[in-house]
Specification:
- This protein has helices at residues 2-21, 36-40, 44-76, 113-118, 169-172, 205-214, 216-220, 276-283, 285-333, 338-342, and strands spanning 80-86, 121-125, 156-166, 176-185, 190-199, 227-239, 246-255, 265-272.
- The protein has 343 residues and is an alpha+beta fold.
- The chain has a 4-stranded antiparallel sheet, with no helix packed on it. It has a 4-stranded antiparallel sheet with strand order 2-7-4-5, with no helix packed on it.
- 42% of the residues lie in helices and 22% in strands.
- It is built from 10 helices and 8 strands.
Length: 343
């Protein structure tokens, strides 16, 4: 036993002398056989929690980006100066407002009035609260919205008609049809007319199947209908007349061989003329929405990384000073001179 203790004491002394000669700092040697994955992997549950946090952060950034671009779109697009719903008459027995005694100064300037007589039509009165029904007593009529005008004289406006078309065989096979819009003053004078052609939106069978599969639950519960919306830009740069303010608008659907177009609901809206940027974000809505959302998402990510990296940069000098102090204390305890530690 005495000889064994002498051997152990001698080996310990030799190891201490060699460690001091090599400048050993007292820190444990690094593990070189462990892989990078093994060093960072701490268990399946913490890894899943970390992945969940990352996914929640990405989802939060995505929703925030969608919201901020939607807010940007609403803020730059002008509101409607006037808007009315359209109720189309298919019976052919109701009084057409253009030929009604209520609007005596109106006249047609079209080659085939027979087509107009049999075509479905609707009228919008922008001065009135009620739309396309007659009251035979003044007490049954609501008070008008205004008695003078709804638009500012001299300003330029755009007029757009929106039609919700059911996905029926008649509409799918209808082909191209025209939308006739006539603008009239309060006394019935024809101010402007426009004819724009459009058609039922085309889509292939597999696209229709995928779209209806995505909307299957809303369709089954009545939250959505099997309709397609058609936007018809009828007027651009329409100037409000100071002497004859716009009051009425009639919309007539003209089809080939006088085939009726089935319309579920419709509306006509008047808004201020759009600028170049407003036209871009409106005509390329989904492209601009995707690009704007991606830009805002990347901005969120850059700001987040910058905020997270700022505390680490502030704490890094303190960590370096603490490591130097600990190394000096270990060296002094092991009997290593500070000059040797600095070398």
């Amino acid at each position: 036993p005495a000889a064994f203790r002498a051997i152990v004491h001698h080996a310990t002394s030799e190891a201490s002398i060699r460690a001091q000669a090599l400048g050993f700092s007292g820190r444990p040697p690094p593990i070189v056989n462990q892989t990078e994955f093994g060093e960072s992997f701490v268990g399946i549950v913490p890894a899943l929690l970390k992945a969940t946090k990352v996914l929640m952060l990405v989802l939060l950034f995505l929703l925030s980006s969608l919201f901020f671009y939607g807010l940007f779109y609403v803020s730059i697009m002008p509101g409607h100066s006037a808007a009315e719903k359209l109720y189309f008459d298919y019976s052919g027995i109701a009084r057409h407002p253009v030929r009604s005694p209520v609007l005596p100064k109106t006249h047609f300037r079209y080659q085939n009035p027979h087509i107009l007589n049999n075509a479905p039509w609707a009228v919008a009165d922008f001065f009135s609260q009620h739309s396309q029904w007659d009251g035979y007593n003044d007490d049954t009529l609501p008070a008008p919205l205004t008695s003078s005008r709804v638009l500012k004289p001299g300003n330029m406006y755009q007029v757009e008609v929106s039609l919700d078309l059911p996905e029926s065989d008649i509409n799918i096979m209808s082909g191209v049809f025209s939308v006739l819009v006539e603008i009239l003053s309060a006394d019935g004078t024809m101010l402007a007319s426009s004819v724009r052609s459009t058609r039922f939106p085309h889509e292939t069978g597999w696209v229709s199947t995928i779209r209806k599969g995505v909307l299957l639950a809303p369709l089954l519960f009545g939250a959505a209908e099997e309709t397609r919306t058609v936007e018809v830009p009828s007027f651009r740069y329409l100037v409000e007349n100071e002497d004859m303010p716009l009051r009425y608008a009639t919309v007539t659907l003209l089809s080939q061989e006088n085939k009726p177009i089935e319309v579920m609901t419709g509306s006509i809206s008047i808004g201020e003329e759009l600028s170049s940027i407003q036209i871009l974000v409106k005509e390329w809505f989904f492209t601009c929405y995707a690009a704007g959302t991606a830009f805002i998402f990347c901005t969120h990510g850059i700001i987040y990384l910058a905020v997270m990296a700022f505390p680490e940069r502030q704490n890094r000098p303190r960590d370096d000073e603490a490591s130097l102090d600990s190394g000096s204390s270990v060296a002094s305890q092991g009997g290593i001179p500070e000059e040797q530690l600095d070398a």
